Amino acid sequence: MQKFKFLFCNNAFENNEADPVYDDEYRVSKEKGFETSLFSYEDLEFGKLRLFNGNIEGSTIYRGWMMKPDMYQKFYEKLKNKGIELINTPNEYNKYHLLPDWYKDFEDCTAKSAWTEDFSEESLKELLSKFEGAVIVKDYVKSRKHEWYEACFIEDVKDTENALKVIKNFIERQDDLLTGGIVLREFIDLKSIGKHKESGMPISDEYRVFVLDNEPLIIDSYWHHSEGGLSDNEIKWVKEICKRIDSRFVTIDLARKSNDELVVMELGDGQVSGLQDIPEEEFYGCF
Questions:
Q1: Cβ pair 8, 56 in contact under 8 A
Q2: Which of 11, 68, 186, 253 keeps 20 to 30 A from 141, CA to CA?
Q3: Which of 155, 186, 217 is the last residue of a domain?
Q4: Do 79 and 119 lie in a common domain?
Q5: Are residues 147 and 165 in the same domain?
Q6: Is the pLDDT of residue 199 over 70?
Q7: Angle between the 121-128 and 160-174 helix axes, to the nearest 10 degrees?
Q8: Do 146 and 196 form a contact (C-beta atoms < 8 A)?
Q9: How far apart are the C-alpha atoms of 129 and 115, rounded to whole Å?
Q10: Rounded to 5 degrees, what angle do the CA atoms 265, 85, 104 make?
Q11: What is the pLDDT of residues 148-158, one digit of tens each?
């Protein structure tokens, strides 16, 4: 396998330390012998790029916070000028970071979805009219699932007053973080393993798959490391859908429906996808 370098966000208060959220990944990647470096995310927001604690060049995987497409474009270009080539081009990043860009390729195995960038009441009502029953509200990238009843879940699209309230709550609370437009996704009856103790959000039997060069790199339970798992036939199916991907490093989030079939919930750029419960040693060991 190709030997990658890894680039992490630094600590905003200490340039030569990793962001606390990524500190364990940074430490383990170094212990595994990978060349690493840090950069200031905050500086990048103002158009500057500074690297700390390591000189790297060549094919590199970024591990850090999500970026809007225009910010990633600048990041990619500035790094390339320093001889550092991120594993995913800006076009590849956008395709799996933004739901409308990947949806058509996976329409047969994911929830029905529709979207709009017009936030007028008339447009939102038209969007709601494309569905029946319950839906989930999100933007092109994220939902507010931990605010389940206030800004994520609409129990019945025919209850227009409540539906518009949930959508407007989502728009207001996303504020400057809102990316693209509003997406509604059919609510699928999933196999439940409980509820989130704080938000009341239903927790389902879900899996995160990191995909490298169209092959599963590692598959693990989204919520509880190594509890349960996929059958041989399901892993075969996962390998088949990985062949549809047009990017080197991506995540696929799967969930088990109440009838035990798997469904694709989300795709994402692998560089900005969290490990969830995957141990850092296992993740970096896969490279």
A1: no
A2: 11
A3: 186
A4: no
A5: yes
A6: no
A7: 120
A8: yes
A9: 12
A10: 25
A11: 999 999 999 99
Q: What share of the chain is helix, strand, coil (3-state, %, to 5)?
A: 35, 30, 35
CATH number, domain containing residue 157? 3.30.1490
Kindly report, residue by residue over 35-58, the tens digit of the pLDDT. 999 999 999 999 999 999 989 999
C-alpha–C-alpha distance, residues 237 and 160, integer Å: 38
**Residue of 212, 223, 279 whose CA lies nearest to 252:** 212
On the question of pLDDT at 200 being above 80, the answer is: no
What is the domain extent for residue 9? 5-87
Residue 211 has pLDDT above 60, yes or no: yes
**Rounded-to-integer distance, Cα 49 and Cα 34, Å:** 22
Residues 66 and 131 placed together within one structural domain of the fold: no
Residues 195, 266: one domain? Answer: yes
Domain count, the chain: 3
Q: For residues 149 and 90, what is the distance between their CA atoms, to the nearest angstrom?
A: 34
pLDDT tens digits along 50-108:
999 989 999 999 999 999 999 999 999 999 999 999 999 999 999 999 999 999 999 99
Q: Are residues 102 and 202 in the same domain?
A: yes
- What is the sign of the dihedral through the CA atoms of 221, 225, 229 and 234? positive
